[in-house]
Design a protein that fits this description.
GO biological process, one term: protein catabolic process
Shape: globular
Protein name: TD and POZ domain-containing protein 2
Number of helices: 16
CATH topology of the largest domain: Apoptosis, Tumor Necrosis Factor Receptor Associated Protein 2, Chain A
Pfam family, one: MATH_2
Number of domains: 4
CATH architecture of the largest domain: Sandwich
Number of strands: 20
Helix content: 25-40%
Radius of gyration: 26 Å
Length: about 475
C-alpha cells in the first residue's frame, strides 16, 4: 500500500503540540477499497509515546459526514500510523456516488483527535488543502517502412516530470514502454495507446492506469502486444508502409498548501451568499430561455421550434460561434435547422446552455444528449453525460454505450465501459446482450477480448497498523 496521498502536516495543541498528517490510499488492503490513516510525524516533538482517540471521515457538500470510522485510544510512537486499511469502497467514492463524495471534483476528509474518554462536543478546526494537478501529454510516433526493419526500433520522449523510452522488439509483435521519473510530486500515471488507421481513426490496443510512487527508485516498465489484426490488414494499419502509434499520457502531481484556522461562521456566510446569488442567476437565465425574451434566433427540429439568443449560444458552443460569425445562411436567416435530433434532446441541450443543469435525466436521455453535445462541441455537457452513463452502466446497456463511444472516438468512455464489462465478465459473457454484440459488432468484440487477455500484463506495486 505505497501509493498514497499525504496531507500537509498539522499540530494538535490538545496533544502537547505534536505533529501529524493524514494518509489516504486510493488502493487499500484490496484493490477495491480505499485506506485511510492518521500518522504521527517522525520529526514530532513531545513524548516518545502519546495516546489519542481519533475519528476519520469523508465529508460531502456542506461538510456533512458521508462515512466515518472511530478508533479507540491508540498509542502513537513517532513515525507511526494507525487507521483503517478497508475504509470505503473505491467504486462508491469515484464511480457510483461520485457527485456526492466529490462535489466540484473535490474530496474532503476530516480527522478529529481527542484524549478524553468521550469525544468533545466542540473542537478547534484546522483547514488544509492538497491540489492534484493533471497534465496531459500526447504524441504520434510514425514508423516508416516497418516491413523492412530487421532489428528493433526505439524512440525516446522527455518531459520535465518523466522520461519515456518506447521500444518495439525485433519480431515487431510487442511494444515495451519504460518510464523513469525522479519527481516526488508525481503520484499517478495513465497511458492509452492507439493505432491510427488509414482513415485517421484511432484503434485503442492498450490502456494502463496506476500509481507510480516507486518510479523514483528506478525504471518501471510494461509491455503491450500488437493485435494480430495489425499484420493481417496491412493496407489499413500500414498505409504507405507507415505505422502510426498514438500515445496519450495523463500525469497527476500533488501540491500541498499549509494549514490555517477554519472560521465556520464567516465561511458559511460567504458560501451561503454565493450559493444564493448563483441560484438567482440560474433562475433568471432559465426565465430568459423559457420566455424567449429578446430572442434573435430559432432552433428548428422536425416537430418543434425553440427561441434562443445568438450571444449565449456562441458563448457556450464553438459550433454556434462559427456559424453566427461566418457568412453561412444561419447568420442572416434567423433560424437553424437541427432535424437530426429529437425536440426533447434539443430542449435539454438548451436548458443546459442557459442554466448549466440537467433536470430529471434518464439513461436514454443522457446518450442522446451526449451525441448532441458532441455535435455542438459543448465539451462540459459531453463530459457530464459521459460521467452519468459511466455511473449507470449495467449489463443491458453496456454494449450500446461501447458502440456510442466508438462512433464518437471517445477513448475515455470506451475504456471505462470495457473496464466495467471485464469486471462483470463471468456474468456478462454469458448474456444474450454479449451474444448479440458479437454478431453485430465483431471488431469491437475482438478488441474487447484482446484487452481481456492482455489486461494483466502490467506490474502494479502494492502493501501500517490498521484496525
Amino acid at each position: 500500500m505505497d501509493e498514497r496521498i499525504e496531507s500537509p502536516t498539522f499540530y494538535a495543541d490538545a496533544l502537547e503540540g505534536t505533529k501529524w498528517s493524514l494518509l489516504l490510499l486510493p488502493v487499500g488492503e484490496t484493490k477495491d477499497d480505499i485506506a485511510f490513516f492518521l500518522k504521527r510525524e517522525e520529526d514530532c516533538s513531545g513524548p516518545d509515546i502519546i495516546e489519542a482517540h481519533f475519528e476519520l471521515a469523508l465529508l460531502g457538500k456542506d461538510d456533512s459526514i458521508l462515512k466515518a470510522m472511530t478508533s479507540t485510544k491508540r498509542k502513537f510512537m513517532k513515525n507511526e500510523s494507525w487507521g483503517f486499511s478497508i475504509f470505503e469502497r473505491r467504486e462508491r467514492v469515484f464511480v457510483t456516488e461520485r457527485e456526492t463524495f466529490l462535489p466540484e471534483d473535490t474530496l474532503t476528509v476530516q480527522c478529529t483527535l481527542w484524549t478524553t474518554y468521550e469525544k468533545p462536543d466542540e473542537s478547534k478546526h484546522l483547514f488544509a488543502s492538497t491540489a492534484i494537478k493533471v497534465k496531459r501529454i500526447s504524441f504520434v510516433w510514425k514508423i516508416d517502412k516497418p516491413s523492412t526493419l530487421k532489428s528493433g526500433i526505439r524512440n525516446k520522449f522527455k518531459d520535465n516530470l518523466i522520461d519515456f523510452d518506447l521500444v518495439i522488439n525485433e519480431g515487431f509483435d510487442r511494444l515495451n514502454i519504460d518510464m523513469t521519473s525522479f519527481d516526488e510530486t508525481l503520484k499517478y500515471i495513465s497511458c492509452n495507446t492507439s493505432i491510427i488507421d488509414s482513415e485517421g481513426r484511432k484503434i485503442s490496443y492498450g490502456s494502463k492506469k496506476y500509481f507510480f510512487r516507486d518510479l523514483k527508485k528506478g525504471v518501471s516498465s510494461f509491455m503491450l502486444l500488437f493485435p494480430e489484426m495489425l499484420m493481417e490488414d496491412k493496407s489499413r494499419y500500414f498505409p504507405n508502409d507507415v505505422l502510426s502509434l498514438d500515445f496519450e499520457f495523463v500525469l497527476a502531481t500533488v501540491e500541498h498548501f499549509g494549514c490555517r484556522l477554519k472560521y465556520h461562521n464567516l465561511e458559511n456566510e460567504v458560501a451561503g451568499e454565493k450559493t444564493q446569488n448563483t441560484a438567482v442567476l440560474i433562475a433568471d437565465f432559465k426565465t430568459l430561455y423559457n420566455d424567449g425574451i429578446f430572442s434573435d434566433i430559432e432552433l428548428r427540429t422536425s416537430t418543434k421550434t425553440f427561441s434562443a439568443h445568438k450571444n449565449i449560444l456562441s458563448a457556450r458552443s464553438p459550433v454556434f460561434r462559427r456559424m453566427f460569425s461566418s457568412d453561412k445562411k444561419e447568420k442572416t436567416s434567423g433560424y437553424v435547422d437541427i432535424i437530426s435530433f429529437e425536440a426533447e434532446t434539443i430542449h435539454r441541450m438548451l436548458l443546459y446552455i442557459y442554466t448549466d443543469s440537467m433536470e430529471n435525466l434518464q439513461f436514454e436521455d443522457a446518450s442522446k444528449l451526449y451525441e448532441a453535445a458532441d455535435k455542438c462541441e459543448i465539451l462540459s455537457l459531453k463530459s457530464r453525460c459521459s460521467s452519468f452513463m459511466k455511473e449507470n452502466l449495467c449489463p443491458e446497456n453496456a454494449c450500446d454505450v461501447l458502440v456510442l463511444a466508438y462512433l464518437h472516438k471517445d477513448d475515455d468512455l470506451k475504456c471505462s465501459v470495457q473496464d466495467y464489462i471485464l469486471g462483470q465478465r463471468e456474468e456478462f459473457f454469458c448474456s444474450q446482450e454479449w451474444k448479440n454484440f458479437m454478431r453485430t459488432h465483431p471488431k469491437l468484440a475482438e478488441n474487447l477480448m484482446y484487452r481481456k487477455v492482455t489486461s494483466n500484463m502490467m506490474y502494479l506495486p502494492t502493501k501500517r497498523k490498521s484496525e
